[in-house]
């Protein structure tokens, strides 16, 4: 295995000079610096990660903490893939590595800070965390470098990146109302997720502003997973079958696209024609929605840009720990397709 001493000998410089080049610390003539870098490349030398971390007090790694509903894999969804693609482009450009950790919505004791306290990462990106977790307060109080995606901690000095979930869902519901729908059902997202709550509130706002009734039997709990949509569709059909006086809702709004895909699957199994018998819409803008039959109307979020921006915010904080909190709210776009 090539060592730092081997690089120094081959480049004709001291061990200290190689160390200064590797750590970008201290003065080295440009000609000498380039000779050392060329030697490092030629010898295929990689600095000892542990030793470098002890010297610089940095591991050049960002931790990304991702929730995952039961029965859904992180790498199996465009939502997380696109966020991670944006984060990865930012970190790679800046010479940082990524360490990914997942948890389940159902676990209220999720340890968000383990990677940081173990010094495995320099900072954290939390995707839709449970803001009731006491560790969120620890982040602010201990000034832990962190950016939150998909939620907005109030009265805390923690940077976040989010989208206009409320207005996006309001516009989506108004789109259905504009198409003549009056009997509209809704499948929620996780109760501890701010983005899910904002979307439901946007739906309620559109219904109330248009003086449309809310049928309690048509409001369903969910967790952003396809099974939520399947269960909601089964319950809708069961209600219709149990009482012939209760018609099908003319439209079903799902809090995210995965839920809508599950509902579409169940509708096909029951020979419910979309959109002839029931319009169906989702939220997120994942790629699969363009490939379904019929293609799903959805609200598109700029997921790549969200991930990239969150990473840039965190890296800027690592460079300047006194940098003030930053917040960014991205607009969303209604994508009209044949399902509505």
TrEMBL record:
Start and end residues of each HTH lacI-type domain: 2-56
Keyword entries, A-Z: DNA-binding, Transcription, Transcription regulation
Domain of life according to the entry: Bacteria
Keyword Coiled coil: no
Molecular functions per Gene Ontology: DNA-binding transcription factor activity; transcription cis-regulatory region binding
Transcription listed as a keyword: yes
Coiled coil: none
Name of this chain's protein: LacI family transcriptional regulator
UniProt organism field: Hydrogenispora ethanolica
């Amino acid at each position: 295995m090539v060592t730092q001493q081997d690089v120094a000998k081959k480049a004709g410089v001291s061990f200290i000079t190689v160390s200064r080049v590797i750590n970008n610390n201290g003065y080295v003539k440009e000609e000498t610096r380039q000779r050392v870098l060329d030697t490092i490349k030629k010898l295929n030398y990689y600095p000892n990660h542990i030793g470098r971390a002890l010297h610089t007090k940095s591991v050049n790694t960002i931790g990304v903490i991702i929730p995952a509903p039961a029965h859904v894999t992180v790498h199996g969804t465009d939502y997380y893939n696109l966020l991670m693609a944006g984060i990865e482009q930012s970190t790679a450009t800046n010479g940082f590595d990524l360490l990914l950790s997942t948890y389940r919505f159902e676990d209220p004791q999720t340890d968000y800070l383990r990677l940081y306290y173990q010094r495995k990462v320099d900072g954290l990106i939390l995707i839709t965390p449970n803001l009731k977790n006491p560790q969120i307060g620890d982040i602010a109080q201990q000034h832990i470098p962190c950016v939150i995606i998909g939620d907005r901690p109030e009265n805390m000095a923690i940077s976040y990146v989010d989208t206009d979930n409320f207005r996006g869902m309001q516009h989506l519901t108004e789109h259905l109302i504009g198409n003549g729908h009056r009997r509209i059902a809704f499948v929620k997202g996780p109760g501890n997720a701010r983005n899910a709550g904002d979307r439901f509130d946007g739906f309620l706002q559109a219904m109330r502003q248009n003086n449309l009734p809310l049928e309690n039997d048509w409001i369903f709990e969910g967790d952003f997973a396809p099974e939520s949509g399947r269960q909601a569709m089964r319950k809708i059909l069961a209600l219709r079958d149990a009482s012939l006086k209760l018609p099908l809702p003319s439209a079903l709004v799902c809090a995210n696209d995965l839920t809508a895909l599950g509902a579409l699957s169940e509708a096909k199994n029951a020979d419910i024609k979309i959109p002839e018998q029931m319009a169906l819409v989702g939220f997120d803008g994942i790629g699969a929605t363009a490939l379904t039959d019929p293609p799903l109307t959805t609200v598109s979020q700029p997921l790549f840009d969200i991930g990239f921006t969150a990473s840039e915010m965190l890296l800027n904080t690592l460079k300047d720990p006194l940098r003030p909190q930053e917040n960014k709210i991205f607009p969303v776009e209604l994508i009209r397709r044949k399902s509505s």
